Amino acid sequence: MRFLNDVVPPYDLTYSDVFLAPGFADVASRMAVDLRTPDGVGTTIPVVVANMTAIAGRRMAETVARRGGIAVLPQDVDMEAIADMTAAVKAADLVADTAIVLTPADTINTAMDLIHKRAHGAVVVVDDDRRPVGIFTEADGAGVDRFTPLRDVMSPDAIVLDADLSPELMFETLAERRVHLAPVVDGHGRLHGLITDLGAVRATLYAPAVDGRNQLLVAAAVGVSGNVAAKVQRLTEIGVDVIVIDTAHGHQQKMVDALKAARSVTSDHAVVAGNVVTAAGVNDLIDAGADIVKVGVGPGAMCTTRMMTGVGRPQFSAVLECATAARARGRHVWADGGVRHPRDVALALAAGASSVMIGSWLAGTYESAADTHRDTDGRLYKENYGMASKRAVVNRSQADGAFERMRKEMFEEGISESRMYLDQATPSVEDILDRIVSGVRSACTYAGATSIDEFHDRAAVGVQTMSGYAEGRAIDTSW
Length: 479
Known about the structure:
- By secondary structure, the protein is α/β, with parallel strands linked by helices.
- The chain has two domains: 2-94 and 208-366 and 425-471, TIM Barrel (Alpha-Beta Barrel), CATH 3.20.20; 100-204, CBS-domain.
- The protein contains 16 helices and 20 strands.
- Strand 9 and strand 10 (191-196) form a beta hairpin.
- Helix 1 (58-66) runs parallel beside helix 2, helix 2 packs parallel to helix 6 (228-238) and helix 11 (342-350) packs across helix 14.
């Protein structure tokens, strides 16, 4: 990456402070761009879901990995729950989504409690042999008593698709029958999953992120306290592919000790550590055993660290310096935080990141781990909170005594409650991934790049005023 006119500003920059200038390009189309990440993790798009308790769970991990990214399961979750979530992700199909399954005797009320946990908006009704006998959608329950059995309101003549069909044939069958979704069954007619017309198209545009056994990738985080070696050992036994050692201030002795402990029990897992914002922090963590370093202090939407402490660094400059240091050592960085738009992902990659971690942007989606609520106007929302907030500290310290819990609760650097409304235009994490991938692919073509590394090499970045940033924003109302 270079700055326009080779003028390096003497001050630090956020993503909003900079822009990408187009260069000569001979890239035939967006689809000629290969977004496989250069860090060796195995992801095919540069998106990592941050290890936030309200966001990264089983549904999120499965869905994002199916589209080529990876989710980091949070360190606050019980280890056995991590084991269950990892097993579910590993068992998930690479094409069909996991269905919400009920029986004919179950009620509309039960179905409505579950239906917003998946973006496809349907419940598959099965018999005792797990063969599909009907489909229930929210529209089927409109105006009907909530305790009505599904057998009385489901659509019983739903088509089923064979799991061996290609995504193209699945799409063509759905289009021919004029339906947008169908259960997918195995060779014995038992439910295998569910496919939508859009899901079938996405299966041809994305390559899933998989391990050596062709199972979806999953990452999990541990903190720097306690028996780190034992926790990492357990995660490797569970089947987690990437270990993330996470703490707000990563450039400290406890992180160095934690990295060494992790490396004492695994040499063949990618180990990510952070967070830092300087080249010195990157080098010290690499020396201690990190393959990838997380970069970012204070840019997250739920984080109040900068306002509470004054500590942090504008994210674009932090990523640029840290990525330069990591690449000089043959290692990589993940840009963690500060992403609000697809342009920010592109700018982080231009600065040298191999992937970009996203948290709160994904909180208001069907797949996030938090429960779905309705406000008084009937709008769907989910509650999000920062991982250094009082709420997170309370959850994390349940095993402590009352006095120790109260002491810890006095130190908070995050928002404890925020309503994240589901955007009806993009209510699924897959909708957001579509926007990100489309934006990054286009950014690469503007730079004449066909890979993430080429994009970093060719990117030309300029500095702009806030008026310049505002000029680039679309206007959706008449003036």
